[in-house]
Each structure stands twice: as C-alpha cells, then as structure tokens.
Design goal:
Radius of gyration: 36 Å
Distance between the termini: 111 Å
Structural class: alpha+beta
Number of helices: 2
Strand order of the largest sheet: 1-4-5
Shape: elongated
Order of helices and strands: HHEEEEEE
C-alpha cells in the first residue's frame, strides 16, 4: 500500500464505478419521486371523491326530509283555502304556521315556482288532466293542482297541473 501525498484523499471507488453508482441513485430517486407524485395525486382524487359522495349523501338525506314537509305544506294550503271566516283567530294561527314553514324551506333553498298561465313544460310539470273549452291556447296551464318546487338549481317536485286541450 502506498502512501498518499499529503493533502489528497484516496479514491474509494474508481471513477467509472462512481459514475454508474450516481446514475443508479439518480434513477432510484426519479422512480421514488414518480411514485410519490402518483400517490399524492391518488390521495387528492380520493379526497375530492369522498367530499363529492358525502355531499351527495347529505343532499339525499335532506331531500328525504323536505319532500314529506312539502306534503304538509300542501295540506295547510288546502285547509286555508277551505277555511271560513267563522274562526278568524284559528285561521290566522294556521297562516302564521304556514309562513314559518315556507320561510324555513326557503332558508334551505326550496322555492315554489309559478305554473298558472304558462306553457306546459314536461321538465317541471306533470299534466294530470286536460281542460276543454277554456279559451286558452292548447298547452297553456289553466289550473295548478299541486305546487311545484325547485331546490339546488333543479326541480325538487314537479307541479301537478291541468292543461288546456
């Protein structure tokens, strides 16, 4: 073994082996970086999908609660329609309950839409009857039997209507 000159360090690997070793390490680093980026992208996609599915489940749960409430609103409106002035205090109390229920629904984005005297649209209306000799043009809605509602930029419940024939 020969002594190195002072101030120099002995080479541990020959230059060719060192270059190949660096290339191997760089390739391993690239492979690990690609694996990391794919895993990160998978995690990001998983989070988005989970959030989307969670929102969809929550919306379905809300829908299951809102639809029966709309049937109650319908019943209250029918009761008010058929009430007489004999018991005005009772009627005012029912109207107050109706307004509170409507305000609650609107606070959650549920809004009624008008159907009377507009043209029939199969996307938002269910035609349950045809009215003859109404003086209206064919396809015009002449009577709303059940109010329709929108929610989240879509139809929550279509209106049941009578259409001029």
């Amino acid at each position: 073994m020969s002594k190195s000159e002072p101030g120099t360090q002995p080479d541990l690997l020959p230059p060719a082996d060192l270059a190949r070793y660096i290339d191997t390490l760089e390739e391993q680093l690239r492979v690990e970086r690609d694996r990391y980026l794919r895993t990160l992208a998978d995690l990001t996609n998983f989070r988005r999908r989970t959030e989307r599915e969670g929102k969809k489940s929550a919306d379905e749960g809300k829908r299951e609660i809102i639809l029966p409430l709309l049937a109650i609103v319908d019943d209250i409106e029918k009761a008010l329609q058929w009430s007489d002035a004999a018991d005005q205090h009772f009627v005012e109390g029912v109207r107050h309950i109706h307004r509170k229920l409507q305000a609650l629904l609107e606070a959650h984005g549920v809004r009624p839409f008008e159907s009377l005297h507009v043209m029939f649209d199969h996307d938002v209306h269910d035609a349950v009857a045809v009215a003859e000799n109404t003086g209206e043009s064919a396809g015009m809605i002449v009577d709303e039997l059940r109010r329709g509602y929108t929610w989240q930029a879509g139809v929550l419940r279509p209106a049941q209507v009578r259409v001029a024939g």
